[in-house]
Design a protein that fits this description.
The chain is α+β, with helices and mostly antiparallel strands. The protein has one domain. Helix content is 41%, strand content 35%. The protein is built from three helices and three strands. The protein has helices spanning 2-13, 18-42, 57-68; strands at 47-50, 73-91, 98-116. The protein has a three-stranded mixed beta sheet, sandwiched between helices.
């Protein structure tokens, strides 16, 4: 329930209508993905698509860091299609109010960035 309430709050605070929510979330996702790719390209770090969501992303990042001799900073940006949940917009017939309902599993493109922290 917290997920649905949080999503409703986000939409309300940002004055996003239910009918525009899908387009909004898609646009935000695209901006986040593009920003991650830009940072990786600016730092000459690989952007790699993983063909399976079961690929161990940490192990892949560690392999790349070792291969490239990295001890700090951005290692890579990994993209994959992962299982995720979507939401449905419902309408209560009695109150006529709309609400968000957590829905079935879908597939979503995800971005993972992996960095080696610099301590001290």
């Amino acid at each position: 329930m917290a997920f649905e309430d949080g999503l409703m709050l986000y939409l309300s605070v940002n004055k996003i209508k239910f009918k525009d929510a899908g387009d909004h979330f898609h646009a935000v996702s695209e901006r986040v993905k593009a920003a991650a790719v830009r940072v990786a390209e600016a730092q000459h770090r690989p952007v790699k698509y993983l063909s399976s969501s079961k690929t161990d992303k940490e192990a892949e990042a560690r392999r790349i860091a070792q291969q490239d001799g990295l001890t700090s900073g951005l290692i890579c940006v990994l993209q994959s299609v992962e299982p995720c949940h979507s939401v449905l917009i419902r309408r209560d017939r009695e109150t006529k109010h709309q609400y968000i309902k957590y829905a079935r599993a879908n597939a979503c493109i995800t971005i993972s960035t992996t960095c080696i922290p610099k301590w001290g």
